[in-house]
Amino acid sequence: MKNISRFFWLKILLYCVLTIYALITLIPFLWALSASFKPLSEIVSGNPNFLPQNFTFDNYKQIFLQEPLFWRWLFNSLIIAISVTILNLLLNSMAGYALARLRFVGKRFWFFLILAVLAVPAQITLIPTFLILKAIGWLNSYQGMIVPSMVNATFIFMMRQFFVNFPKELEEAAQLDGLNTFGIFRHIVLPLAKPALAAQAVFVFMGSWNNFLLPLVILFDPEMFTLPLGLNSFKGQYISYWNYIMAASMVFTLPALAIYAFFNRYFIQNVTFTGGKG
């Protein structure tokens, strides 16, 4: 009985800690949502009112109807994020499966090279990326934003760990049925890897959707800006239009919430991405 009672109180304590953490995380988002319905004067007044005193939709009307490039920024962000996500799902999965299952010359070298890439901060590669894109004429273009981000060492490693633990019996049975390596990967492996692919899709999409540094370096035409870069235009020399920034930020969060909601059912499955030796 004592053990049961102790476990009960520990569970209550854990829930209390998680609830407090959730509130701490959620309060800034709720404040931003509230600020998106406030006029600028109320936001910068310094009064700590959580609910809008002068509720207004003018901020949303401004960004949707008066800001001529907002829809273009939204379109650019969607095209780039969706393209990067699809390419990452395909290429990272193929690379991870090759490292986990196939035998080829230099396999161990490429695996350790990928591990080495994981140790390199992304900021270090910005200048080389800029110089390469400038040399081939891809600055200020969709391909300049998509191609450098179409593979990711982190998710190659993640998919490799997933496929290392994938049951070999299923692949052997498919071989007996006459499927080649590509057929096994396409018809057997990928359908059963949906949880790993869903996790990868969410993280890759959100990483591309929120990316600010790469667009800042290679995009210079306002019509090619993505939303994170476009939000910067609401900052003047002497004032920042926080009401417009908050409204645009709320619109900015909707696609990320939508893709998480779409793939959420796969997150409740018990999937382990770590495993044995390859």
Secondary structure topology:
Elements lengths: L1 H34 L4 H4 L14 H9 L3 H32 L5 H12 L7 H11 L5 H5 L6 H12 L3 H9 L4 H12 L1 H16 L3 H6 L8 H5 L10 H26 L11
Helix pairs in contact: 3-14, 4-8, 4-11, 5-8, 9-10, 11-14
What attributes characterize this protein structure?
278 residues; mainly alpha; 14 helices
Description:
- The protein has 278 residues and is mainly α.
- The protein has a single domain (58-267), classed as MetI-like fold (Orthogonal Bundle), CATH 1.10.3720.
- The protein is 69% helix and 0% strand.
- It is built from 14 helices and no strands.
- It has helices at 2-35, 40-43, 58-66, 70-101, 107-118, 126-136, 142-146, 153-164, 168-176, 181-192, 194-209, 213-218, 227-231, 242-267.
- Helix 3 (58-66) packs across helix 14 (242-267), helix 9 packs across helix 10 and helix 11 (194-209) runs antiparallel to helix 14 (242-267).
- The protein is globular.
Radius of gyration: 24 Å
Strand element count: 0
Quaternary? single chain
How many domain units?
A: 1
CATH architecture title: Orthogonal Bundle
End-to-end gap: 46 Å
Shape type:
globular
Quick recap:
By secondary structure, the chain is mainly α. It is built from 14 helices and no strands.
